[in-house]
Amino acid sequence: MSSRLYPIFRKGNPRLRIFLPNFYMKLVKPKCNEPTNQVKFIIPLEMTDDDAKNYLEKIYNVEVVQLRTRLFEGEIKKNHKNYLIKDPDYRMAFVTLPEDQKFEFPDIFPQEKKDKESKEQKRLIEQAADLMKQRRRNWDRRDIPSWFGV
């Protein structure tokens, strides 16, 4: 069931209605040593096992062998003003795919980008070190002019 508002139907116009679910499924990156045919999702508390299974099968055309869900309590943290802050509760779905299917988490940052970023970071660190050396050079002789000697 959807709570989206649709335009008012006027005579002569086609009735274009697409019913989309109000749910979302957030993919969780797997830890090491997990089976390649298992996927984890964070789903809303209102979503049932049947809803999650139908969501994956109907919308994404993914064959689901087994689906288990588990409720997790949000973490309670202390603020710097000693206020308690609680993260919202969530439900995690553990989806098992058929044995012939393997799921690989998408690599968002390929190695080439990582190399470029690391080179850029090294350059910035060296530049900052040079600036610190220049500032440190005459910190105890501020009142003496530079032409007098280093």
Q: How would you describe this structure to a colleague?
A:
It is a single chain. The chain is an alpha+beta fold. 25% of the residues lie in helices and 19% in strands. The chain has helices at residues 49-59, 111-137; strands at 26-28, 38-43, 66-72, 76-78, 84-86, 90-96. A 4-stranded antiparallel β-sheet has the order 1-2-6-3, covered by helices on one side. A two-stranded antiparallel sheet has the order 4-5. β4 and β5 form a beta hairpin. The longest helix is centred in the last third of the chain and has 27 residues, at 111-137. The chain starts with 25 loop residues before the first strand and ends in a 13-residue tail after the last helix. The mean pLDDT is 83.
Short summary of the structure?
One of its GO terms (molecular function) is structural constituent of ribosome. Component of the mitochondrial ribosome large subunit (39S) which comprises a 16S rRNA and about 50 distinct proteins. The chain contains 2 helices and 6 strands.
